[in-house]
Amino acid sequence: MLFILAIDQIQRILEKATEQGLLSPIGSDPIRLRTSLYADDAALFLRPTQQDVENLQLLVERFGEATGLKTNIQKSEIYKTNCEALNISNILDHFWGNIAEFPCKYLGLPLWIGRTSRADEQIFD
Q1: Which residues form the Reverse transcriptase domain (predicted)?
Q2: What's the domain count of the chain?
Q3: Which domain range does residue 104 map to?
Q4: Phi-psi label, residue 89: left if phi above 0, alpha if psi -120 to 50, beta otherwise
Q5: CA 39 → CA 6, 36, 95, 107, 116, distances in Å?
Q6: How many Å apart are CA 103 and CA 91, to the nearest integer?
């Protein structure tokens, strides 16, 4: 129960950071939900800018210091969408986590972008 109470605060922190301009809004119609949280798994969404990445990292680190909930860097992965024209390696230069590719699994469910092929489906068999 304590975990749920603490983790709910990360969404509020990210909303406040967006309102204050520390994080860029997501999408043309700003999406308020920046996180997908379940048990000890979290997915955080942000625009691929150096400032957003640095600010998110700082917010997550401060959240960990305040709550005792730390990020497991070895299990952290970054999935990019719609940013082929950007140099993601430079943007993520000091960010923890590994750059990974779709398709992937989140909470045991397969995730991919666009239509799946037989090859995509076989990855999860």
Answers
A1: 1-111
A2: 1
A3: 2-123
A4: alpha
A5: 12, 10, 24, 10, 28
A6: 22
